[in-house]
Design a protein that fits this description.
mainly alpha; 12 helices
């Protein structure tokens, strides 16, 4: 099984998608699952012969299943992974993300919170929980988690950008604008920017055709507020 998984990853890396797809189907069937079936038709857990896969191999296969748009297979793999390694935070976060993709929002929220009960400062779990609340039309709760993300890492532009999105949903347009500008200012200050803005229409809609010097200074004040809170 280990060699098959290595070959599968090699085929994907080489862009040989059809061969990889066929081998993926073989691997999944050996695990007692079936590729290409509708979401929800695979029962939780794996059936048949037990395979001594490592945690990393389960996570890898789940990612491959997602790549082939078979999130139901990924869900079954991750649930088995969680059953075997119930304290692994990485597995919890991956499972929570798959639950969200499948529209199982309550399960997703619960799993993110379990992950945070083990690692309260896990930035990925904090961010993704906030995004879950945005997706389920709960922007106020999302904002709380994006603020928590900023407390954990006030130099990450993503936190300011997400807080701006939540504030926009809440109708706080002026505050949202400041946070959006803060994300741009912080992003430009990094040696390796983490935000890559490609939708200019979005920014023209949100910011207008021009930004004043005063507004840029005010956005810097927002950044200083968060940096000051972490000193």
């Amino acid at each position: 099984m280990t060699e098959k998984i290595k070959t599968l990853l090699f085929l994907l890396e080489m862009g040989r998608r059809e061969e990889a797809r066929a081998l993926y189907g073989q691997v999944i069937e050996e695990l007692g699952l079936k590729a290409g079936v509708p979401a929800g038709s695979i029962a939780p857990g794996l059936s048949g012969e037990k395979h001594d896969l490592s945690l990393r191999q389960y996570l890898t296969l789940a990612n491959v299943a997602s790549y082939f748009k078979e999130d139901n297979v990924a869900e079954a793999l991750l649930e088995e992974c969680y059953n075997r390694w119930p304290e692994d935070v990485g597995c919890m976060i991956e499972l929570a993300y798959i639950y969200k993709k499948l529209g199982k929002y309550s399960k997703s929220e619960l799993m993110y919170r379990v992950a945070l009960s083990y690692e309260s400062d896990n930035e990925v779990a904090v961010r993704e929980l906030g995004l879950l609340y945005m997706e389920t039309e709960r922007p106020l709760e999302a904002l709380c988690w994006f603020h928590r993300l900023l407390r954990l890492c006030p130099v990450n532009p993503i936190g300011y950008f997400l807080a701006s999105e939540a504030l926009e949903r809440l109708g706080k347009k002026e505050r949202s604008r400041k946070y959006l500008l803060s994300s741009i200012v912080m992003n430009n200050a990094l040696k390796e920017p983490v935000l890559h803005f490609t939708n200019n229409d979005l920014f023209i809609h949100r910011l207008g055709e021009s930004v004043s010097t005063v507004e840029l200074l005010e956005s810097r004040d927002v950044i200083d507020e968060w940096l000051g809170g972490n000193r």
